[in-house]
Design goal:
Length: 181
Amino acid sequence: MKMSALQKSLFASFLFFATMWFGGGLTRTAIGFDLFLPGTLDVKPFLAQEQINYSVRLMGVTAYYTIAGYVLSFLSALILIVSFKGSIKKRGWLFMAIFLYFIFCPYELYLAWLDLQLIFRINAIDFVHLLKDERLFTLFSLRFHPWMTAIGFLSLLSYITALLFLAWQPLNVHEKAEYSE
């Protein structure tokens, strides 16, 4: 499949922003797993109040990059879909990659909404008193609820599969070559 200069630029920007979003998501997941006991919403008992506050603050700081990366990769993907409109029927791998990317869009937008609320709460509260605000801790706990982490793991598998489709490009429709004798 031959790509135009615009499509190449859009694809490069999509990859850049998706990498920023994906890396931010992994970082934030690691922070969450470092803060809570596995499989629960209980804060690890050996963490000091300052460590918990700093982890919550890091979640807010990394949310900026994660949200920006997802929104910009989403917009790049939408424009790419429009530009690849004629190729999608012939390229099954492209359709599957697009489908796997967009199927978890509601989940990612819900996470972005939670993260925006988290950012606003963190910026409105003094750093020392972060966990004394019950609404902030509720938002933070919603982000790492066991159901949310289960859906997050499924979305991670979906995105990895989409990347594999982009790399290997299976399900191509090959046009028959016409030979003239």
